[in-house]
Amino acid sequence: MSLESTIEPIAQDALHDQPIERVHRDGVEFVVLGTAHVSRSSMEAVQTLLERESFDAVAVELCASRAQGMRDPEAFKQMDLFQIIRQGKAGMVAASLVLSSFQKRLADQYGIQPGAEMKAAMEGADSRGLPLWLIDREVGTTLKRAWHSVGFWQRFGLLGGLLASVFEREDIEESEIEKLKQGDMLESAFSEFASESAPLYRSLIAERDAFMSARLREEAAGTTDGTLRRVLVVIGAGHLKGLCEHLRNDRTDPAAEAAELSRTPPKARWPKWLAAGLVLVVFAAIAWAFHRNTALGTQALLAWVLFTGGFAALGALIAGGHPASIVSAFIAAPIKPFRPGIPAGGISAMTEAWVRRPRVADFDALRDDIGHWKGWWKNRVARTLLNFFLVSMGTIVGEYSAGIHILHSVF
């Protein structure tokens, strides 16, 4: 087994200063190109490599859903908001939209579409009749593993970073984007990141390095007719060093490793137990209040309704919700303990989407609108997602506020 690796010598024109490594393993040469996902020169480097060299397959840092979205950029317009909310995917959809909005803002500065180098690789494979390998982990799985890898308070920092990436309006110089392809800068940046949140770095970067290496080995092992000699691998520059190291050194079963890294971590149980415990304590206090005095019990029960329903309705109001979604939030929040399933935020958001059905224009302008804070209230799709989050947050605030008030008044 040959595992030697060499750094591609600097060439002229489109490949000048491009980070390329060649890894030889099991009789296959993997030509690994590191790119910046909003870089014009990265797209040109992909096209040049395909023109100058002969490849038997092309691998890209995409999962099936992202590849489909890139091939059909209008596909997101067909998403069913009711199903998204009912299945509890509102958070994943919102995070994906925020990330794509940030990438689109950068790309708009330079007249190039986000992921143009990946699209160039896919189109190059199609035009040459080459197999296309989608080697990245599903984006939803990565986001879930990243979310579950950090603590409660770190999640607020993660959300804050996402929001800051959307609302930051300062332009970024194209030269700074190109610098991201210098290995030493990437290593130092990721080392600093890892020191701040090693679990987050592991989920977003390190695990995907191992996953993509495993997928490359799995695809190569599956080609048994002896025709596979050279594969072009197009990945983000931040994965270049880690992926190549795994590709040289890993001895694990690739299919088993990919399956393990694709596993969605189980949800933490303590938040549900804490919420259930709070509700039990509060309703025990209400029952005790009725036992002592009917009027006191009635006041405690009314406090529960007003606090939970009031804060949930306030969330819908802040989100610019329709009166019907505000009323549904007020009704759904107090009976949440007796109504397992869709949360109050989901009921209010579905009401909002039913009363104010998103128009084609809302989907057309979605990525642009969410890049400005006012757009979250103007766009009907974004406002529905905002309604879901604010009503859900209002319900939680209302429950704790009601609990404190009732316990204080009864004991």
Topology:
Blueprint: E1 5-7, E2 20-25, E3 28-35, H1 40-52, E4 57-60, H2 64-71, H3 81-86, H4 90-110, H5 116-128, E5 132-134, H6 139-149, H7 152-167, H8 174-179, H9 183-196, H10 198-222, E6 230-236, H11 240-249, H12 254-261, H13 270-292, H14 294-318, H15 323-332, H16 344-355, H17 360-364, H18 366-369, H19 375-378, H20 380-410
Parallel strand pairs: 3-6, 4-5, 4-6
Antiparallel strand pairs: 1-2, 2-3
Helix pairs in contact: 1-5, 4-7, 6-10, 9-10, 10-11, 10-12, 13-14, 13-20, 14-15, 14-20, 15-16, 16-20
Summarize the structure in short.
Helices cover 64% and strands 8% of the residues.
Would you give an account of this structure?
The protein is of the alpha/beta class. It has 2 domains: 257 residues, no CATH class; 141 residues, no CATH class. The protein is 64% helix and 8% strand. It has 20 helices and 6 strands. Strands 1-2-3-6-4-5 form a 6-stranded mixed β-sheet, with helices on both faces. The radius of gyration is 26 Å and the shape is elongated. The N terminus is likely disordered.
